[in-house]
Amino acid sequence: MKKLTSIILSTLGTALLFTHAHSASFDCEKAATWVEKTICESSELSNLDEAMANKYKQELANNSGYED
After folding, report:
1. What is the DSSP letter of 2?
2. Cys-Cys with 46: which of 5, 22, 25, 32 at CB 3.0–4.6 Å?
3. What does the pLDDT look like over 53-63, one tens digit per residue?
4. pLDDT of 9 above 50
5. pLDDT for residue 16
6. Closest to 22 measured CA to CA, from 34, 36, 39
7. CA 26 remoteness from chain centre
8. What per-residue confidence (pLDDT) applies to 64?
9. Biggest CA-to-CA distance, the chain
10. How far apart are CA 10 and CA 35, in angstroms?
11. Alpha carbon of 46 to those of 8, 18, 25, 63: distances in Å?
12. What one-character-per-residue DSSP string does 9-60 give?
């Protein structure tokens, strides 16, 4: 029984890791262009895309009162 519980927990843990492997700034289920598909297929590109989107949001918030 202990071994079965261990196997189940290991399997669930692995499944959870794979669901968060790609964190693109957009919904990969709706990826249409080759660029979007390439980002979704690569965890490195997906992470960089997410970081860039977060930085862009930060800069927009920091400069929201800026006028030319």
Report:
1. H
2. 22
3. 999 999 999 98
4. yes
5. 44
6. 39
7. 8
8. 78
9. 69
10. 34
11. 29, 13, 8, 26
12. HHHHHHHHHHHTS---SS-GGG--SHHHHHHHH-HHHHHHHHHHHHHHHHHH
Query: Does pTM surpass 0.90?
Result: no
Under DSSP, is residue 1 helix (H, G, I), strand (E, B) or coil?
coil
Other beta carbons within 10 Å of 39: 23
- Encoded amino acid at 10, one letter: S
In which residue are the tokens 């399997």 written? 11
Written as one letter, the residue type at 63 is N
Angle at 20 between CA 29 and CA 25, to 5 degrees: 55
Residues 21, 19: Cα–Cα separation, whole Å: 6
Residues 27, 30, 36, 39: is their CA dihedral positive or negative?
Answer: positive
